[in-house]
Amino acid sequence: xxxxxxxxxxxxxxxxxxxxxxxxxxxxxxxxxxxxxxxxxxxxxxxxxxxxxxxxxxxxxxxxxxxxxxxxxxxxxxxxxxxxxxxxxxxxxxxxxxxxxxxxxxxxxxxxxxxxxxxxxxxxxxxxxxxxxxxxxxxxxxxxx
Length: 145
Known about the structure:
Blueprint: E1 5-11, E2 15-22, E3 27-35, H1 43-53, E4 57-62, H2 74-88, E5 92-96, H3 100-113, H4 118-144
Parallel strand pairs: 1-4, 4-5
Antiparallel strand pairs: 1-2, 2-3
């Protein structure tokens, strides 16, 4: 894939963490956590992000069990990814998100934020998980070139 901006998503029924990354540098940053309403993503907010960042691709974390088998939550994630591709006419790639939540918690704790509770903490973890997912994908891209 050519260099450019990529958006990464950590999909959940209640919240969707979003990160932005750059294929040229291989870096990603946590961006925002969107709230889903009645299990439906906030497509207007996602559309604004796509318009603002003008990504050339979208990356979505796919839940996978530690043994490599597909997680039971994979179907809604796959439906979300398919809808992203249809709505925004962009390539969408799914990537194994094993341990992304754990890595996000370690990053948050390592930043001196400790272990938190509540909505703000969960939203922060969702953004950080999206960053981990996107960094994993970006690293994978580096090995393909």
